[in-house]
Amino acid sequence: MTSASAVADLPPVVQGKRRFGWGQAALALAIAAFLVLFLAWPVGTVIVAAFTHKGAGGFTLVNFYDFFATDLFIRSTWNSLYVAGMSVVLASVFALPLAYITTRFEFRGTVLIQTLGVVPLIMPPFVGAVAMQLLFGRNGTVNMLLDQHLGFKIPFMEGLNGVIFVQAVHYFPFILINLSAALRNIDRAMEEAAQNLGSSGFRLFRRIVFPLAMPGYLAGASLVFVKVFDDLATPLLLNVKDMLAPQAYLRITSIGIADPMGYVISVVLIVASVVAMWLSALAMRGKDYATVQRGGGGLARRHMHPWQAVAAYAIVILILLLVLAPHIGLLLLSFATIWSFSPLPDGYTLAHYGRVFSDSAVYITNTALYATLAGVIDIILGTAIAYLVLRTKLAGRQWLDWGASAALAVPGVVLGIGYLRCFYGVTLPDGTPLAALWIVIVIALAVRRLPYALRACVAALQQVSVSLEEAAENLGATKARTVRRVVVPLMTGGMLAGFIASFATAAVELSATIMLVQSNADAPLAYGLYVFMQSAAGRGPGAALGVIAVLLVALCTLASHLVIERRQKP
Amino acid sequence: MAFAGKVSALALSLLLLAGAAAEAQVSGKVSVVTSFSKDVTDPFKKAFEAAHPGTTLDVQNRNTNAGVKFLQETQANNQVDLFWASAPDAFEVLRGRKLLQSYKPKASGIPEKIGSYPINGPDNNYFGFAASGYGIMWNERYVAANKLPAPKEWDDLAKAPYFDHVSMAAPSRSGTTHLTIETILQGEGWDKGWGVIKAMSGNFRQITERSFGVPDAVNSGQVGYGIVIDFFAFSSQATGFPVKFVYPSVTTIVPANIGIVANAPNKAGAEAFVEFLLSPAGQEVLLLPAIRRLPVNPAVYAKAPADYPNPFKDTSLGAKVKFSAETSEKRSEVVDVLYDQTVTFQLEALKDVTKTLHAVDAALAKKANAKAADLAKEARALVAAMPITEAQASSPEIAGAFTGAKQKGARQAELEQQWAAFAKDRYAQAKAKAAEALKAAQ
């Protein structure tokens, strides 16, 4: 810590005494009430089984003893930790070059790359898996071609390493989005100062640029870790069952529906996720990443030498090809007639799109509506929680952050069942249950995706210097006005990053939705996909619907990036 | 407008009252929770709505387990009229929890039994509308490229050429696979049955967590063979996938069912849909290429394509097994958990032993060796060994561990750990014996 410590040595938020505000307390209470009502209470009604004694019915910890006495669960815990850790490493390898090249250099197609970089996050359920297998599976395109021409195969999709590969491809956008937002927020004066003092090249990046972007990187990396740790779709797609999240899911939905162990694993997942978030917060403690000057447009963009440009394009195209391969497969699948044990489909047709447009338009509009609402709710809550945690001295404010982050670890089925238990008995005047309204799906999506938006908002606020707010307040602005006119505008990049992450993933969420959908007219796209993907004839239309989901999210992401780019042009 | 609408609705219902009294009040939304895909439900929805103008069939698609859970969680304020799914055991669970109401269908021409299996549930709580059998489906391109044989019986799948080419859904995850396992156990007996199942499972490439994952993997060519319910294979063929299907002789033909949910908001509509499903018009919809299920009305087969399997004529289908639903029901969870703990979660170890045993067989075929043959036999016995006997599997002490919080007794997790440890230990011993046999045979 030499030059960077010029910034880092400033003590954390202690400058100026924060007045205790009743407004802040009310806000904190309102958020806490929301979290209790829509997260803690519904989840509590389900996981209480983890602490219940069989037969006697009283409180017990014997189920946790069973957890540690079962080889399978211990093995699963180690596997999950290993996979989550290695996925962060591999995801960083994908994300760092893309983020660095696109934010640091004059580079054509930056917006396109930033948009395409988000697309892997949107892997529609089921059909994404089929597309991955058709490309990278044992008899997928790549392996069939390798086998024909070179006589060997690569086990991309086998065992734990297969899970790491697929997870890194799937979730690296979390690092990309948050790191890019952070890099854009770095004050170029910092970099110039370092250059004036003689630093350049990789040293400049390692000692100045990367440390200053640390909040963004950590936000992304911790999300990847926790998300991979809690993810069940990918391991199940690869038929890896000895990991924690798949064990919880398999048990809650079948062999252990009446057994407490599924809920015990859920509790372990929630605790582990909160601990991971706490550790990442610990890593940031005592460091201040805020910079005062704004409007400089982030790092100075430089021109590349021709050979640098060639290398940069080669790296970017290579990474994009790799991470977008599943979507290329999905696109092929949506136009394919029959694709079976061959490198490419037998023939092509537009019929699948015809079928989807004729009877699934309602799924598309529902998804756009639900995911947008969920994303908006998430950035409002995310910004509010970030502000309360970083800028106030309220007692227990960290719990808001941890509580909201815990949502990441709650299996979707648990949340879905909890909602049915809590809100199905509540009826509206005309007798329909509250849980039957589509707004409940929106709230479930918002709660499940809140951690994504929250991490982005916290990272964004960490980069905004408190002195700017103090300046505004000294000039007579009220607290509310300062937030509205100073803090929020400065956080816009991070908030948009959060919105994209929440929106994109909410658009393809299935596990909680499937418990809550009460009629076809209210169903989102992921549910439509599920319905198609139960039959051989539905594979093509399912893939077409998947492509539409990806396009929908990609277009929204592109729009958000254009907004960011426009704001940054001086 | 609203008034005119009401008047015409009134007039219509009066007309209907005068006409077919039975269907007098059929109108409005009939909501059905089903595990069937859109390809199955859409044609029925169209035909039903055409036959009963003024009704809409609202289809909510959920997998069978989620559907059962949903009805349980929402029973206090039920909004669902019908439950429509394959696995008879799901209906048994619903019946046990009094979530279905009884009804006597008026449709005629439907026999009591298909093979040895009763078509309707006890107390008329649910009604079979289509039959299905279990068998083996395979991808012709995959099999041709790898020069593999065509199977006929379950134990064919245990042979060396099939190693690493077969897939099945976990019985705990798929009601239909559960019945396949139970059919083998009842057809071959508990000990021999588990021997067959484990020898077969040792050749598995993967054990999927969704029923449809198996036909999907076979269709894509990720695996060669899959153990599936017949309509998965028939509808894949109809879609154009290069797949074939065979019924082994130890199979059972089981009905897929529909039941009326207790306190159905639109009871009349629900009854009308059940009647439609069982009527000749409804039964004929089953013959559509994308659906391809076996009607329960024997007369309807007259309209089926030439090569359509007919369980009412072809007596070899399902004849070998007298399937007892009662036996199956008693030990259903125990069998699932036994399979998961001794096979699904130990697949690597099991495959390792199986691979070595195939190598021993190959070596013995070249040059006989009594010592190696004995060791291989011992190894096979160790693989087949089960931690509990048939009697224990249906005993209340063991079955009671799987019912949740209500009864005292052993906890599920304790039994699971014991069974898993038993299997792990036996597979390790078997592996040592098999390796020794291989050394002797070479």
Write structural notes for this entry.
The complex is a heterodimer of chains A (570) and B (442). The model of chain A is unreliable at 1-18 (pLDDT under 50). In chain A, helix 4 (71-104) runs antiparallel to helix 11. Chain A is built from 25 helices and no strands. In chain A, 71% of the residues lie in helices and 0% in strands. With 570 residues, chain A is an all-alpha fold. By secondary structure, chain B is α/β, with parallel strands linked by helices. Among the domains of chain B are: 23-131 and 254-303, Periplasmic binding protein-like II (D-Maltodextrin-Binding Protein, domain 2); 331-442, no CATH class. Helix content of chain B is 47%, strand content 15%. Chain B has helices spanning 2-18, 38-51, 64-73, 88-96, 140-145, 175-188, 190-201, 213-220, 230-239, 267-278, 280-285, 325-330, 332-342, 347-366, 370-384, 390-393, 396-399, 412-441; strands spanning 28-34, 55-61, 82-85, 100-101, 113-114, 117-118, 126-139, 166-169, 204-208, 225-229, 243-246, 253-261, 294-295. In chain B, strands 1, 2, 3, 4, 7, 8, 9, 10, 11, 12 and 13 form an eleven-stranded mixed beta sheet that branches. Chain B has a two-stranded antiparallel ribbon with strand order 5-6. The longest helix of chain B is centred in the last third of the chain and has 30 residues, at 412-441. The chains are: A mainly alpha (570), B alpha/beta (442).
Protein traits:
heterodimer, A: 570 residues, mainly alpha, MetI-like fold, globular, disordered N terminus, B: 442 residues, alpha/beta, D-Maltodextrin-Binding Protein, domain 2, eleven-stranded mixed sheet, 18 helices, 15% strand
Quick take:
The complex is a heterodimer of chains A (570) and B (442). Chain A is 71% helix and 0% strand.
Provide the number of structural domains of chain A.
1
Determine the most extensive contact between two protein chains: A-B, 72 and 72 residues
Cα-based radius of gyration of chain B, to the nearest Å: 24 Å
How much β-strand is present in the residues of chain A? under 5%
Specify the oligomeric state.
Answer: heterodimer
- The poorly predicted ranges of chain B are 1-24
Total helices of chain B: the number is 18
**Termini of chain A, distance in Å?**
32 Å
Report the helical percentage of chain A.
Answer: over 70%
What is the helix tally of chain A?
Answer: 25
Radius of gyration of chain A: 24 Å
Mean pLDDT of chain B: 87
- CATH homology group of the domain at 23-131 and 254-303 in chain B: Periplasmic binding protein-like II
CATH topology description of the domain at 23-131 and 254-303 in chain B: D-Maltodextrin-Binding Protein, domain 2
Helix share, percent of chain B:
40-55%
Overall 3D shape of chain A: globular
CATH architectural type of chain A? Orthogonal Bundle
Residue-averaged pLDDT of chain A: 84
Query: What CATH first level of chain A would be assigned?
Result: Mainly Alpha
The main β sheet of chain A shows up as: none
